[in-house]
Amino acid sequence: MCNARPLYLHKKVTCPIHASILYIPSSSSSTSTSTKPNPLSTLKFLSSNRTTDPILSFFRKIPMATANGHSPPASRWSLHGMTALVTGGTRGIGSATVEELAGLGAKVHTCSRNEPELNECLQQWKAKGFSVSGSVCDVSSASEREKLVHEVASLYNGALNILVNNVGTNVRKPTTEYSTEEYLRLMSVNLESSYHLCQLAHPLLKQSGAGSVVFVSSVGGVLHIGSGSIYGLSKGAINQLTKNLACEWAKDNIRTNCVAPWYTRTSLVEHFWVLQLLEKKDFLQQIVARTPLQRIGEPNEVSSLVGFLCMPAASYITGQVISVDGGMTVNGFNPPINLD
Ligand SMILES: NC(=O)c1ccc[n+]([C@@H]2O[C@H](COP(=O)([O-])OP(=O)(O)OC[C@H]3O[C@@H](n4cnc5c(N)ncnc54)[C@H](OP(=O)(O)O)[C@@H]3O)[C@@H](O)[C@H]2O)c1
Q1: Candidates 97, 110, 167: which one to mutate for ligand 1, based on the most atoms within 8 Å of Cβ?
Q2: What is the mean pLDDT of residues 129-152?
Q3: What are the contacts of 28-34 at 24+ separation with CB within 8 A?
Q4: Ligand 1 centroid to 88 CA: how many Å?
Q5: 114: which of 6, 53, 94, 215 lies 20 to 30 Å off by Cα?
C-alpha cells in the first residue's frame, strides 16, 4: 500500500509503519477534485504525531525492547546496561555465550557444578575485563535452581534482562535400552530445569521492562540425527516451549527465542568423537559430507546468534527456533553427481 501513488496525491511523507514513501494531498497545492474522504489523510495525522485517537495512536507506537526505553542507533547493537543469567557457562557454548554477552556490555551471572573450574573461569573473565559472577549450581535440582535465581535477584536488584537456558546433556542408546532413571535424568537436565528456571525468572524478566529468554536446543529437536530419542524429544519440547512463551509473555515485553546447533566443537561431543574415530573412522566424514559448509561448528558461531537475539536490534523477533548448522537442515538430498 505504501508504494502506491494515487493520481490526486502530491505531498511526500514517510509512512510510519513501513518506512517507505507516501504521497498525500497538499492543502495548498492539491489538484484533486474528489469530494470523498481521502483514506490516506489518516496517515497524515499519524505522520504528524498530533492524533490523540487511541486506535490511530496504536499505529504510531512501535515499541523498542530496550533496556531503558528508546535507544540511539548504536545501542541497538549493544547489551550495555543489561543483566544476564547463562546456565552452564564454564565450557563449550555456555562459555562462549558468557564471553559474547559480557563483551557486548552485559553483566553476566553463570553457574556450573564444578567449583574449581568455575573459579578458574571467573578469574580468566576478570582478567579480560568482563563483568561476570558465578554460583555452583546443579540445574537438575529444584532447590538449587531456586537458590540460583534468588542470588541473581539480589545481585541485580530484582531485574534480569536475559536468561540463557544452555545446560543440556545426552546418553545415546536405542530407545528400547533406556532405563526409567536415564529417561528421568535426561528430561530433568534438558527440559525441566529450563522450564522451572523460566518460571522462577519470569518476575525478574518482567521487572527489567525488556526481557529476553534464549534456549539452546539442538537440530536433534527438529530432525532425527541418531542422538537418541530422549535427547530428541526433550529438545523438541524446548522448541515448542519457545513458541508458547513467546505468545504468553509478549504482554510482559519478554521475547523468547531458541538456537538449535548441529555438531559443535565442545566437551559434550569430544569423547564421542574419540570413540567414533576409534570404532568407526568415517563418522566425522559423514557429518561433514552432510553439512553444506563442510565442517562442524565452533561455540562462538552459536553464541553470536544468542547475543544478537538479546539485543534491542532483535526487538521484533520472538518465538523463533533458528538452526546454527552450516546448512545441514536444509540439505534434503545430496546426490553424488556434480551439477557444476
Ligand atoms: N556440542 C554440540 O555439538 C551440541 C549440538 C547441539 C546442541 N547442543 C546443546 O548445547 C548446549 C551446551 O552444550 P555444550 O556442547 O556446550 O556442552 P558442554 O561442553 O558439555 O558444556 C556444558 C556446560 O554446562 C555445565 N553443566 C552441565 N550439566 C550441568 C548441570 N546439571 N547443572 C549446571 N551446569 C551444568 C557444564 O559444567 P559442569 O559439568 O561443571 O556442571 C559446562 O559448563 C546443550 O544444551 C546441548 O544439548 C550442543
Answers
A1: 167
A2: 98
A3: 32/8, 33/8, 34/8
A4: 6
A5: 215
Which residues are the active-site residues? 231
For residue 173, what pLDDT is reported?
95
Contact yes or no for 224/242 (Cβ under 8 A):
no
Q: How far is the CA of 286 from the centre of ligand 1 (A)?
A: 24
pLDDT band for 33, please (50, 70, 90 cuts).
very low
115 Cβ neighbours under 8 A, 6+ residues apart: 136
Query: Grid coordinates representing 159?
Result: 531485574
Classify residue 48 by burial, with Cβ atoms within 10 Å: 0-12, 13-18, 19+. exposed
Q: 3-state DSSP call for residue 324?
A: strand
Residues lining ligand 1, judged by CB closer than 6 Å? 87-94, 111-114, 117, 137-140, 166-169, 189, 216, 218, 261, 263-264, 266-269
Note the pLDDT tens digit of each residue in 178-223: 999 999 999 999 999 999 999 999 999 999 999 999 999 999 999 9
Q: What is the DSSP string of 39-77?
A: TTHHHHHHHHT----HHHHHHH------BTBS--GGGGG
Residue 324 confidence (pLDDT) above 80 = yes
**Contact call for residues 218 and 260 (beta carbons, < 8 A):** yes
Type and span of the H or E element at 110: strand 107-112
239-245 own/partner pairs: CB under 8 Å, 24+ apart? 239/215, 239/321, 241/194, 241/195, 241/198, 241/215, 242/215, 242/217, 242/319, 242/320, 242/321, 243/319, 243/321, 245/198, 245/213
Q: Which grid cell sits at 284?
A: 566425522
Question: Are 67 and 81 within 8 A, CB to CB?
Answer: yes
Distance 211 CA to ligand 1 centre (A): 23
Residue 46 predicted with pLDDT over 60: no
Q: What confidence score (pLDDT) does residue 268 get?
A: 85
Rounded mean pLDDT, 108-128: 98
